[in-house]
Design a protein that fits this description.
By secondary structure, the protein is of the alpha/beta class. The protein has one domain. It contains four helices and three strands, in the order αβαβαβα. The termini are far apart.
């Protein structure tokens, strides 16, 4: 993280997104790390990318129980021929 902050010569990242999460890792682990970074004012907004809808819901639930921030953005794969998010993810948005 410090390397990324030095490169553009800034002290924070506006939006940090996790891409292609490992299903072997409990969602609490990255949320804890990112929440700590957010409290240290290194990250302003948390996001996820290509999360399964069930993982998005799980992250929201964990954050709610812990009374901490969760992902504010989700960047799903979407194209005219790949429209699964319309059924699976968007109804929960």
């Amino acid at each position: 993280m410090q390397l990324h902050l030095r490169s553009p010569q800034t002290d924070h990242i506006d939006r940090y997104q996790i891409h292609h999460p490992s299903l072997d890792t409990e969602i609490e682990e990255p949320l804890d790390v990112l929440t700590d970074m957010q409290r240290a004012r290194k990250i302003r907004c948390l996001g996820s990318s290509t999360f399964l809808p069930s993982r998005v819901v799980q992250a929201q639930w964990v954050a709610s129980v812990r009374q901490s921030d969760s992902f504010f953005t989700e960047q799903p794969p979407y194209a005219m021929l790949v429209r699964g998010i319309e059924r699976q993810l968007l109804p929960g948005a």
